[in-house]
Specification:
445 residues; 14 helices; transmembrane; DinF-like; MdtK-like; MATE_fam; transport
């Protein structure tokens, strides 16, 4: 008997199930990472204000260093997913191992740079005389965990490419629990102070990296993939990562310009800006989880040579982005009386915050589609286009944002500029998606 062809409704349901099964665990793993810092802050905060200030400066430097290398996860996801789609699991895992070796090399380089320059880096961030020694101590010790952190990024990309987002969630939960227990034990039990917090985080990160390596090595042995470093493969991973590095640095520049402009608007504005940025980042995790699902699924379809399937799932992902954005926007509007008092009791900050927050709420559907299309093009390995598109976005955003204080605009105008930035990103990504030039099938792009 011939099997009846799948109806559009059946195909949509299949896509929905796959998106949910990948996105929900991915969201859990993404949220676990900032919880590390939250736990460290809660524990170190009881040591004193200088220690907490030192932690704030050192953790900002570490977070910036690691976020720059997020391409290790993105590029690896796309490359591995393509080979999975092509049915070559051995080559998929081999590609992932090259990404892990690249992570180790980059991690070693960052440690070699950070250890001697830690005092200078802390000074550049304007640490006070009382906070600086704690910041230097935390930064030097924590930097030893950077290779493990980068291995976690690359190995996460391997598992996402293999369509597995559950293992990263389990490892993240275990790492968060271990980090909390180690911090309490070393800071208070062993009396190591802020150094104990740093060592606890390093040990937890090394444990997470070891767990990932166990899973990847087991997969490599099962499929006969070599574990040795391959110079050509490592070079290919680096080349795929460079455009995504440009994209990430451009996005970081947008956020830094926005914060610098907010600081020039006054204390109430910069305080309100920090609250909005925290909420914006939290919503970004939810939307990024859908984008991660897009990376894995699109890469697999293109690797399998199924261009029509890639187009169909892209359309469905866009619908998911719009709906998610609308839901998040409504949540902001409806729950604002509940969460605004949690952040601040200052009426001046609250008055500044409210209109800007409504601009953010209205822009969420745009953000939803931007994140999804970003994930689609990453999954397609279309990094060079993403780099140029983000550079163009930065070129449009920077002069508009810098004019806000000159023209007497406040925080609402600044977040209007942020909405313009997301709209430009939407236009560039939509144009590329509609052109179809991102659709390149095969095990490699």
């Amino acid at each position: 008997m011939h099997q009846a062809p799948a109806t559009p409704k059946t195909v949509r349901r299949q896509h929905d199930r796959e998106i949910v099964s990948l996105a929900v665990p991915a969201f859990g793993a993404l949220v676990a990472e900032p919880l590390f810092l939250l736990a460290d802050s809660a524990i170190v905060g009881h040591l004193g204000t200088p220690q907490l200030a030192g932690l704030a400066i050192a953790s900002t430097l570490l977070a910036t260093a690691v976020s720059v290398f997020v391409f290790l996860a993105y590029a690896t996801t796309a490359a591995v997913a393509r080979r999975v789609g092509a049915g070559d699991l051995q080559s998929a895992i081999r590609q992932g191992i090259d990404g892990i070796w690249l992570a180790l090399l980059l991690g070693a380089a960052v440690v070699a740079l950070t250890l001697p320059t830690a005092p200078w880096l802390v000074d550049v961030f304007g640490a006070s005389d009382t906070a600086a020694p704690y910041a230097i101590t935390y930064l030097r010790i924590s930097s030893l965990g950077i290779p493990a952190m980068l291995v976690v990024l690359a190995a996460t990309g391997v598992l996402r490419g293999l369509q597995d987002t559950r293992t990263p969630l389990y490892v993240a939960i275990a790492g968060f629990a271990a980090n909390g227990a180690l911090n309490v034990g070393l800071v208070y039990g062993a009396g190591l102070g802020i150094a104990g917090s740093a060592w606890g985080t390093v040990i937890a990160q090394v444990g997470m990296a070891a767990a990932y390596l166990f899973v990847v090595v087991r997969g490599a042995r099962r499929h006969g993939a070599s574990l040795r470093p391959d110079a050509a493969g490592i070079r290919a991973s680096a080349q795929a990562g460079v455009p995504l590095l440009v994209r990430t640095l451009s996005l970081r520049a947008v956020l830094m310009i926005a914060t610098a402009v907010a600081a020039r608007l006054g204390d109430a504005d910069v305080a309100a800006h920090q609250i909005i940025l925290s909420l914006w980042s939290l919503m970004a995790f939810a939307l990024d989880a859908i984008a991660i699902a897009g990376q894995a699924i699109i890469g697999r379809y293109l690797g399998a040579g199924d261009a029509d399937g890639a187009r169909q799932v892209c359309r469905r992902m866009i619908q998911w982005g719009v709906v998610s954005g609308v839901v998040l926007g409504l949540l902001i509007v409806l729950t604002r009386p509940l969460f605004i008092p949690l952040f601040t009791g200052d009426s001046a900050v609250q008055d500044t915050l409210l209109p800007a927050l409504l601009v953010v709420a209205l822009s969420q559907p745009v953000s939803g589609v931007v994140f999804v299309l970003d994930g689609v093009l990453m999954g397609a390995g279309d990094g060079p286009y993403l780099a140029w598109a983000m550079l163009l976005t930065l070129a449009v955003f920077a002069p508009v944002a810098l004019l806000v204080p000159t023209l007497g605009g406040g925080l609402t105008a600044l977040w209007g500029a942020m909405t313009l930035m997301m709209t430009v990103r939407l236009a560039t990504l939509w144009f590329r998606t509609r052109s179809g030039r991102w659709i390149v099938t095969g095990a490699t792009r």
